Amino acid sequence: MSEKLKDFLEAEYIEASAPCRIDMGGTLDISTFYYPLRHLTPCTFNIALNMRTKVCLFPYEPDMVKITSKGFESAEYPLSKAPFNHPLGLMFAIAAYYRAGGVHIDIESSSPPRSALGGSSVAGVALIGAFSTVFDKIGVYRSLYRREIAIIAHAIEECVAGVPCGLQDQLAAAYGGVNAWQWHGRVKEGVFEKDEIIKKSLYPDLEKHLIVAYCGIPHESKNINQQWVNQFISGKNREKWESIIKYTHEFINALKKNNYKDAADAMNRETAIRQEMTPEVIDDIGIDLVNSAIENKCGARFTGAGGGGCLWALGDPENIDTLSREWENILSKRQGACLLDFKIDSQGLTLPIL
């Protein structure tokens, strides 16, 4: 199979890409939470951004896997000995899933490394999309649907992470758009359901209500997520997670009605609960950004599990314009911190056309 793959890659240029996301209500997409809380209909919300992660496949030495990615040292191993606990371990694990030796995987992301925008999950979705297309073409496996790609990407990531992981990052990468994800925890039907909140034609208007900032320091999501999981399993903070579900629903319902005042209020209440549970979820500059948002009648939230990375804000355009200037001033205090230029992504995963 490796020889078939290598021969194909020598003849074809293979590229797939997928968008990152900003979010609210995260962690509720982890089964540890949505099964016992299913009576409250847990949900998460995300907006896909056009800061895409591109994966390209090239032929390489037989039975070897090489991975290059900006922000990481290049690495190569024999397929059978590739380490899954490596910083690029998820990509090696996906190569192992497909038995894809003789390949060079090049990853190029337009979002900052480890920015809590779902980057590793996005790369996983793009890589599985690329392999799915190639192996279908060479007659080894059939191509996968978006839903299947997201589910497999999540399953492999959870295996190599060694801790429970959510699924919403993979879903945003696969589908794009502005969506709520309902976590039903059903057996015969899917455990999640997609609810489109904003139509593509309305994206330009929504973009006027948003800003996204990179705080200049990378995040480590496992640490904070693991704290939340451990607290929840031990019986602590259950009522806080019930409130997080409530405020996430309120946010989604307000956004559907273009009620940015109520959406911002729900956003700030949800953020405050998480800060109470884990103060380190937002650092000093992040706290300044959140306080500035509240003073300007906007909502603010960290992306992903926080602890570094990005924050985003939502509000009426005139308030967002003022907040944008204030955030630029706050961010100027740290090297590398900045507002990010973005558009809402409607495409989701894009695959090679062969």
Automatic annotation (TrEMBL):
InterPro entries: GHMP_kinase_C_dom (IPR013750), GHMP_kinase_C_sf (IPR036554), GHMP_kinase_N_dom (IPR006204), Ribosomal_Su5_D2-typ_SF (IPR020568). Keywords: ATP-binding, Kinase, Nucleotide-binding, Transferase. GO terms for cellular component: cytosol. GO terms for molecular function: ATP binding; galactokinase activity. Residues 94-177 form the GHMP kinase N-terminal domain. It holds the Pfam family GHMP_kinases_C. Residues 254-329 form the GHMP kinase C-terminal domain. One of its GO terms (biological process) is galactose metabolic process. This is GHMP kinase. It comes from Desulfonema limicola. The lineage of its organism: Bacteria, Pseudomonadati, Thermodesulfobacteriota, Desulfobacteria, Desulfobacterales.
